[in-house]
Amino acid sequence: MKPVNVGLLGLGTVGGGTISVLNRNAEEITGRAGRAIQVTHASARDLNKQREFSTAGITLCQDPFEVVNNPDIDIVAELIGGIEPARELVLKAIANDKHVVTANKALIALHGNEIFRAAQNQGVMVAFEAAVAGGIPIIKAIREGLSANRIEQVAGIINGTSNFILTEMRERGLQFDAVLDEAKELGYAEADPSFDIEGTDAAHKLTILAAIAFGIPLQYDKVHTEGITDITPADVDYAGELGYRIKHLGIARRTDHGIETRVHPTLVPRKRLMANVEGVMNAVLVKGDAVGPTIYYGAGAGAEPTASAVVADLVDVTRALTSDPENRVPHLAFQPDALNDGGVLAVEDNETAYYLRMSAIDQPGVLAEITRILGERDISIEAFLQKEQEPDTTHVPIILLTQKVREGNMNAAIEAIEKLPVVSGRIMRIRVETLA
Ligand SMILES: NC(=O)c1ccc[n+]([C@@H]2O[C@H](COP(=O)([O-])OP(=O)(O)OC[C@H]3O[C@@H](n4cnc5c(N)ncnc54)[C@H](O)[C@@H]3O)[C@@H](O)[C@H]2O)c1
Ligand SMILES: N[C@@H](CCO)C(=O)O
Ligand code: NA
């Protein structure tokens, strides 16, 4: 059978990994797909750059639109990243009747509704397994493997760079910046690494997970997003003393009131599997009403783990080329007319337990004032740590773990406690999830 021709946009970390995996495993891939999958064209900014992989047999060009407009190409793999020109290239490829594979979570989270609509109208496929949790086949697991279930919760470590930084900080006591530089060198970080450490990348991925889990359109704007930049080594230690580890989680959860979508550092009990996912590894817990809890674990970033997902999408698309568009797996798991808006909650209506760290004057009655403010807002204390006086101050760090509370109540309590004359500075808050 005639080979399938792939046009690749971007020869960076993921583009290079994709070429290497396609070359090395050509025989297996052809056996699985039923046809050879060959990269015939690729666009790169620098045509003369020395690369670690072979581009033999690939026609290179600088203008990615040349690839997208080439009539011989069946599938375009968009591995450039960012919104423009990626969005225009993908829409152009679709208009030219080409299928698309992309690793670009920012593009799917922000413009996926438009892109999937265009693909649906044109009868082509857009596959994006590499966009969430790198090599872990999480899209496939939820969209196909768990399609019998009413999904209750998706929660996980979905940014490898943040997890790598938190792990190195805890295990080796390294400084934030040094670890971030290492993550950049290893090819884990986004082109703009603030996307990793400020939670944006995880929010893009959570947007996609929430859509396919709950049958809602992509709604990036509704995700509450916090990154890891405010986490101090002291918080890492106090969390450890209380029996927890700090992990950066994305959580999409069905509640009685609506759907919570949020991304933030989280205290997770040390004995949970999720607390022991280290380095660049990702893990996603998916709870369905029939199957119960399931966990998916693997490398969330890096050249070949990500290429594993890109190539699997190329195989999937190749296998489905002859199928009637109506009978293909829908982009967002549910048929387009079965998507509903789902009632994603405002962040004030989310419910979690909290870790609070504050600095207070060491004198009688202070704790009573703090607990009164919490009590007035129905917030119960679960555990308490009072540490030695901070050097050169009259203050002591106070660490509290609360029971579950509506976020709006916690905001009001924090505001009131911060106004107490005996409390100085801002209160550090980290949400706590038992993930049971
Ligand atoms: N690196 C990872 O571990 C990883 C994992 C999952 C998903 N992703 C996603 O994969 C995509 C690519 O990431 P990467 O890490 O390979 O990035 P990268 O920076 O290593 O590679 C991107 C390549 O695209 C090229 N490029 C940029 N703009 C271009 C343009 N206008 N025309 C032609 N080429 C252009 C760049 O020169 C570069 O070689 C991004 O969407 C990223 O979010 C990356
Ligand atoms: N920068 C991303 C790449 C994988 O999507 C991460 O660190 O998880
Ligand atoms: Na994946």
Automatic annotation (TrEMBL):
The active site is at residue 205. NADP(+) binds at residues 9-16. It comes from the Bacteria. Its EC number is 1.1.1.3. Its cofactor is a metal cation. The keyword NADP applies. It holds the Pfam family ACT. NADPH binds at residue 105. Keywords: Amino-acid biosynthesis, Metal-binding, Methionine biosynthesis, NAD, NADP, Oxidoreductase, Threonine biosynthesis. Coiled coil: none annotated. Pathway: Amino-acid biosynthesis; L-methionine biosynthesis via de novo pathway; L-homoserine from L-aspartate: step 3/3; Amino-acid biosynthesis; L-threonine biosynthesis; L-threonine from L-aspartate: step 3/5. L-homoserine binds at residue 190. The keyword Oxidoreductase applies. Belongs to the homoserine dehydrogenase family. NCBIfam families: PRK06349.1 (NF004976). This is Homoserine dehydrogenase.
